[in-house]
Design brief:
847 residues; alpha+beta; Arc Repressor Mutant, subunit A; Rossmann fold; 6 domains; six-stranded mixed sheet; six-stranded antiparallel beta barrel; 20 helices; 35 strands; 33% helix; 26% strand; flat; GTP-binding; TF_IF2_bacterial-like; cytoplasm; IF2_N; protein biosynthesis
Length: 847
């Protein structure tokens, strides 16, 4: 190097061979022509080797890497001094960067080699330990077991610690002692306790041996140590043990499932069933059935309905047996269920009291019961079917049903005749045979039940019992006094005369009939009356026909299902069981049933829900079938509805029988020109939904023995909805008939009073025309209605505005005379037309 190169730069001393910092100069340029020179120092990375190893020095040219342990320490060659020129400094910086990169690569290669050597050394150590353990176990198995084995046990670690001649310990760690072997203690000799401290003392030595004597990193757990250390030296975590046990349990359970045989089931399949319901009956997964249907080319979901043939394919696919049933098989058929003769026992007779209104039916029942029911009925007439059971002086039980006598309760009387054993026909001795009496006779004959004629009010002076017997002959009712088979008795509810004789004849008739029922079976009953109680919910008065109804029984009645929560007898007492012929009030129904429905006890809630759902579907289908089937029929029905005046009403009553009677009575008020339409009918108090429905349809609400609740009353007052309250049914029908007549309007009656022929047409003023007429019939009067026809076709309807004879105004012109008229609001008049005049009378309508 030249002398110039060795000159100091920026006051620095010349750099020697062992310099660790190199300097350079960088010129910085700023705004406004300012510049600055900055000295840049480049420091080399200081390499620190492990103890016993020399740090390799960088060389200007790449050479082969020296051995990791025996590398000689060489001083780094002195770099050339920095040149003053700009190009020399750039070359120097590039060279320094290149040397630094080479040094980094060389160090990385050395670290990789050291790591491989350590890994190989660790594997060799593992193999040596395994060989020592194997030799020790083989020696122990070959050695005879002596009684003094416990005394010789402490000498075993010394034998284990002896190195194997074929595999000497590595020279790098001559003082390292291998850990003791692990062995299984023999039953006759207990395991020694002394090797444990030896193991604790030798394990750090083995670590130092594997790490090349680096004591600083002895306690630090690295990835290499965690992977290469003996697994026996580390304890398993609690989570690992849990996972292993869970894996064994699953494997055991899976083996049991595979060994278990598939259970073949008899699957009952109706005509239509959902995929999920079919899966439930097969005890299979719904997703599996959907997959099977996908393979068959049917894209369905678990909620879709499939037919019976498709369900059969699925049942056979899964290895089950199918039992086809029709939709009618779902319903309960009680006709096929006949009780055997040996299970029948005597039961109390069911007696229904029927007759005309106000003939003394309820008073007779009061006398028999010793109570007073008439005072509780509005207007002194029975509006509900009452069911009671009395006990006679001889201890016999008789069940009585009291039916209404008003004409509106025809169906209730028919229902009473169908559930009864004996009918007592009540006829007032002072009144005779009346329309409802004849109707009761017809119901009794249709039901095929025996009849007992009770002639009441015999205590009155105008009573004539013989005339009643004679009048009954007109309706083919021949009493015993007239040589017939029908029993008759004269009674007086007021004085009590004839009551004992009536009871004797009832018991005699029941004995002849040999009334029996099976009490030891699932109960069946007939709904006599049903209502919605505010506190108790849906209630049903039922008459048990066979079996014994118990609290807790699952039942289905009509379209509703439920469970018997409680039962009350006719006196309001709670009973636990109801034998045949006992009337009880049942709590726990899902809804208010229809009067006349059959109550049946079933074995499960699923069966009850299935039957109720099937009956609900049938009822819905029946209502749908009454709708117009085609578009043409729908338009014709709409046109007919527009031509007929509708009178909408909302009906709410206290019991189901009253609702039924009111709706039937109101429907009979309709005719061809005005039709009463019941928007909704129900049982219970008037609710908000009833008020909203009436408000939307501008309909009155008819309440029979019910009142609106608080919220409904507020809506009624706010929206001024019309409310009509009644407690006697014939008052209700009379009021609605009058209001319907008012809506219908007065009747328009036209009476033709004259006819005339148009002869000539004359102008009358600027716009009007006058017609010269010849009166053919009757007369023509000023202001009368007229109808102008041409070729028997009506041209216009008008009024005669002016009538003249010659030039004089006249009030009337008779037949055979000529006159001139001016018609109001019409000028379409031609010679030859006919003028028909008529009077209009508005008459009040009656329904």
């Amino acid at each position: 190097m030249s002398e110039t190169d060795n000159k100091p730069t920026l006051g620095r001393k010349p750099l020697g061979l062992k310099r660790s910092v190199e300097a350079g100069e960088v010129k910085q340029t700023f705004s406004h022509g300012r510049t600055n020179k900055v000295v840049v120092e480049v420091k080399r990375r200081k390499l620190i080797g492990k103890p016993g190893e020399a740090a390799p020095a960088p060389e200007p040219t790449p050479v082969a890497p020296p051995p990791p342990v025996a590398a000689p320490v060489r001083p780094a060659p002195p770099p050339p001094p920095p040149s003053a020129s700009h190009e020399t400094r750039q070359e120097m910086q590039a060279r320094l960067l290149r040397e630094a990169e080479e040094q980094r690569l060389r160090l990385a290669e050395e670290a990789r080699r050291r790591e491989e050597e350590e890994r190989a050394r660790a594997l060799e150590e593992e193999r040596r330990r395994a060989e020592e353990n194997r030799l020790a176990e083989s020696q122990q198995a070959a050695a005879p077991v002596e009684p003094a084995a416990p005394a010789a046990a402490p000498a075993e670690p010394a034998t284990d610690a002896t190195p194997v001649p074929s595999e000497p310990a590595p020279a790098a760690a001559p003082a390292a002692v291998p850990p003791p072997r692990r062995f299984t203690p023999v039953a006759s000799a207990p395991a020694p306790k002394r090797p444990e401290p030896a193991l604790a003392a030798k394990k750090p030595a083995a670590q130092r041996d594997r790490k090349g004597g680096d004591e600083r990193r002895g306690g630090k757990l690295t990835v290499t140590r965690a992977l290469n250390e003996d697994e026996g030296a580390r304890a398993r975590s609690l989570a690992a043990l849990k996972r292993a046990r869970e894996k064994e349990r699953r494997a055991h359970f899976a083996g049991q499932q595979q060994q278990r045989e598939k259970q073949v089931r008899d699957v009952i399949v109706p005509e239509a069933i959902t995929v999920q319901e079919l899966a439930n009956r097969m005890a299979e997964k719904g997703a599996d059935l959907v997959k099977a249907l996908f393979k068959l080319g049917m894209m369905v979901t678990v909620n879709q309905t499939i037919d019976q043939d498709t369900a059969e394919l699925l049942v056979e696919e899964f290895g089950h047996n199918i039992q086809r049933v029709s939709a009618s098989d779902i319903d309960i058929d009680t006709s096929a269920d006949v009780d055997p003769e040996g299970s029948l026992k005597p039961r109390a007779p069911v007696v229904t009291i029927m007759g005309h209104v106000d003939h003394g039916k309820t008073s007779l029942l009061d006398a028999l019961r010793g109570t007073d029911v008439v005072r509780g009925e509005a207007g002194g007439i029975t509006q509900h079917i009452g069911a009671y059971q009395i006990k006679t002086k001889g201890g016999d039980l008789i069940t009585f049903l009291d039916t209404p006598g008003h004409e509106a309760f025809t169906e209730m009387r028919a229902r009473g005749a169908h559930v009864t054993d004996i009918v007592i026909l009540v006829v007032a001795a002072d009144d005779g045979i009346m329309p409802q009496t004849i109707e009761a006779i017809n119901h009794t004959k249709a039901a095929g039940v025996p009849m007992i004629v009770a002639i009441t009010k015999v205590d009155k002076h105008e009573a004539n019992a013989q005339r009643i017997r004679e009048r009954l002959l007109e309706h083919e009712v021949v009493v015993e006094a007239m040589s017939g088979e029908v029993q008759d008795v004269e009674v007086s509810a007021k004085t009590g005369a004839g009551l004992d004789e009536l009871i004797e004849k009832i018991l005699l008739q029941a004995e002849v009939m040999e009334l029996q029922a099976n009490p030891d079976r699932a109960a069946e009953a007939t709904v006599i009356e049903a209502k919605l109680d505010k506190g108790k919910g849906p209630l049903a008065s039922v008459l048990v026909t066979r079996g014994t109804l118990k609290v807790g029984d699952i039942l289905v009645v009509g379209t509703h299902s439920g469970r018997v929560r409680a039962m009350l007898d006719d006196k309001g007492r709670q009973v636990k069981a109801a034998p045949p012929s006992l009337p009880v009030e049942v709590l726990g129904l899902g809804g208010v049933p229809m009067a006349g429905d059959t109550l049946t006890v079933v074995d499960s809630e699923a069966r009850a829900r299935e039957v109720a759902a099937y009956r609900q579907e049938k009822a819905t289908a029946k209502r749908t079938a009454q709708a117009p089937a085609s578009l043409e029929n729908m338009f014709s029905a709409l046109a007919a509805k527009q031509a007929v005046i509708e009178y909408p009403v909302v009906v709410k009553a206290d019991v189901q029988g009253s609702t039924e009677a009111i709706v039937n009575a109101l429907n009979r008020l309709s005719n061809d020109e005005i039709k009463l339409r019941v928007l909704a009918s129900g049982v219970g108090a008037i609710t908000e939904s009833d008020v909203n429905l009436a408000l939307a349809s501008n309909a009155p609400i008819i309440g029979f023995n019910v009142r609106p609740n608080a919220k409904a009353r507020e809506l009624v007052e706010r929206n001024k909805v019309r409310m009509k309250y009644f407690d006697v049914i014939y008052h209700l029908t009379e009021d609605i008939a009058k209001e319907m007549a008012g809506v219908w309007g007065p009747e328009r009656i036209e009476t033709v009073v004259g006819r005339a022929e148009v002869k000539e047409i004359f102008p009358a003023g600027k716009k009007d025309k006058a017609a010269g007429l010849l009166v053919l019939e009757g007369y023509i009067r000023k202001g009368i209605y007229a109808r102008l026809t041409r070729n028997d076709v009506i041209v216009s309807k008008t009024v005669i505005a002016s009538l003249r004879r010659f030039k004089d105004d006249v009030p009337e012109v008779r037949a055979g005379l000529e006159c001139g008229v001016v018609l109001q609001d019409t000028n379409d008049i031609k010679p030859g037309d006919t003028l028909e005049v008529f009077d209009v009378e508005m008459r009040e309508r009656t329904l």
